[in-house]
């Protein structure tokens, strides 16, 4: 019998609802639920119940951020960051509101982000994003083994670890398994079901397995895979042809000679095992003819699949209180088809016009008029570069962060030659 993703989602939701409703009570059990007066009284009574009476821990936290970005994006020798589009210098103001509630066996988390441009005329005040909204429960609570389940919204990089992928939204179901072995290490697995597009019954599957503190040392190992494939689509056959696997070993320790500060050394490699040799239409091809057998349509097929990526880096220090500092630097190398445009993270290419590898507008649907060619294809891969990130805590609440990203085009035969640089300074007040 085949498993239907929708049935899995429904089953998980029902499974999680049992412990949640068991603690809070369900309004559907109210025999007078159709009586509006009774409903109003019930709502009023619920408002009078305190967290102390309910049990559990409620936490409320907030971040206020002000940032400045200085960006250069040179496309085939011309600067594209101008006042007509995305400005080369930009100011942003951001507020993040986080609410968490936890009992012995259940929990929930919410994060609202207000990220707006600054300026009397250029500023905005309506950019609101629901970054996180999920509920979870512990299904098995053993001494050395636990099994948790969560359903709702977050981002993939909140669960899975990578410098080059996991930038997309994770709406769906997540399972967490963990097992501890004395003198061997702590092991975990986090399989997840992702809703990509319910209109087309499109779901993705991800998992990460890891070993932590192997043999009671600072050695860690993480391996992840995400399966995005849906198709084939006759408009963009390779847009979702991605099954990306990554292996990430790292070592971290707190040496005496460094003031017991964190030292972390890491390196990772990834590859898209489903990629075929990259194939793009040549310039001048009629987009509508690309879906016929017309002889006027010509393509360039590149000699490789362009499906590998890797990164390596070093992190020093952590920021927890006033006077703490941290620095991290890494080098990144990513081919054009290693990670899908919508999930790529890392240094990137700037790509202020949001041109994809296969689609002119990577946020729009695939169509006959939304196809790139060998000279216009950009995407968020096909680069090599580095990133440096530094933090310093002035007080227990106020932190300054500086970030530098620089990248160059990896294969100049694919699309335009883009040189990208961005320096950002940000002040973060957290409470």
Please provide a written account of the structure.
- This protein folds into 2 domains: 1-49, no CATH class; 58-430, Porin (Beta Barrel).
- The chain is 9% helix and 46% strand.
- It contains 3 helices and 20 strands.
- It is globular, with a radius of gyration of 24 Å.
Strand content: over 45%
Number of domains: 2
Number of strands: 20
Report the biggest beta sheet as strand number plus sense, adding barrel if it closes: 18 strands, antiparallel
Query: What best-fitting shape do the alpha-carbon axes yield?
Result: globular
CATH class designation of the largest domain: Mainly Beta
The Cα radius of gyration reads 24 Å
- List unreliable stretches of 5+ residues: 17-33
- Helix and strand pattern: HHHEEEEEEEEEEEEEEEEEEEE
User: Structural class, from helix and strand content?
Assistant: mainly beta
CATH topology of the largest domain: Porin
* Total count of helical runs of at least 4 residues: 3
CATH architectural label of the largest domain: Beta Barrel
Average predicted confidence as pLDDT:
87
The N- and C-terminal alpha carbons lie at a distance of 51 Å
Tell me the helix content. under 10%
């Amino acid at each position: 019998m085949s498993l239907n993703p929708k049935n899995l989602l429904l089953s998980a939701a029902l499974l999680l609802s049992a412990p949640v409703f068991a603690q809070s009570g369900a309004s559907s059990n109210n025999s007078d639920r159709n009586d509006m007066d009774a409903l109003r009284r019930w709502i009023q009574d619920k408002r009078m119940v305190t967290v102390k009476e309910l049990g559990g821990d409620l936490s409320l936290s907030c971040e206020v951020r002000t940032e400045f970005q200085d960006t250069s994006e040179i496309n085939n020798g011309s600067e594209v960051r101008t006042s007509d589009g995305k400005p080369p210098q930009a100011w942003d103001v951001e507020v993040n509101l986080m609410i968490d509630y936890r009992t012995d066996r259940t929990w929930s988390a919410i994060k609202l982000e207000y990220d707006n441009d600054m300026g009397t005329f250029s500023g905005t005040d309506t950019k609101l994003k629901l970054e996180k909204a999920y509920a979870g429960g512990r299904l098995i609570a053993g001494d050395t083994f636990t099994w948790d389940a969560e359903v709702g919204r977050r981002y993939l990089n909140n669960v899975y670890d990578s410098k080059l992928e996991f930038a997309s939204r994770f709406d769906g179901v997540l399972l967490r398994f963990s097992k501890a072995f004395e003198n061997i290490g702590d092991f975990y697995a986090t399989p997840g079901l992702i809703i990509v597009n319910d209109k087309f019954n499109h779901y993705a599957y991800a998992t990460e397995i890891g070993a932590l503190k192997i043999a009671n040392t600072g050695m860690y190992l993480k391996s992840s895979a995400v399966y995005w494939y849906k198709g084939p689509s006759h408009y963009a056959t390779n847009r979702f042809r991605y099954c990306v696997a990554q292996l990430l070993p790292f070592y971290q320790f707190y040496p005496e000679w460094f003031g017991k500060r964190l030292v972390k050394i890491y390196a990772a490699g990834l590859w898209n095992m489903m990629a075929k040799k990259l194939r793009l239409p040549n310039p001048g091809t009629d987009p509508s003819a690309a879906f016929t057998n017309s002889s006027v349509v010509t393509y360039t097929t590149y000699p490789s699949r362009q499906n590998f990526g890797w990164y390596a880096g070093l992190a020093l220090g952590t920021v927890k209180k006033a006077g703490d500092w941290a620095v991290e630097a890494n080098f990144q190398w990513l081919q054009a088809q290693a990670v899908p445009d919508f999930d790529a993270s890392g240094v990137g290419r700037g790509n202020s016009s949001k041109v994809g590898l296969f689609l002119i507008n990577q946020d729009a649907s695939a169509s006959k008029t939304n196809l790139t060619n060998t000279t216009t294809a950009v995407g968020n891969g096909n680069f090599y570069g580095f990133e440096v990130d530094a933090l310093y805590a002035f007080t227990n609440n106020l932190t300054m962060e500086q970030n530098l990203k620089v990248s160059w085009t990896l294969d100049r035969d694919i699309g335009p030659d883009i040189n990208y640089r961005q320096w950002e300074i940000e002040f973060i007040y957290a409470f």
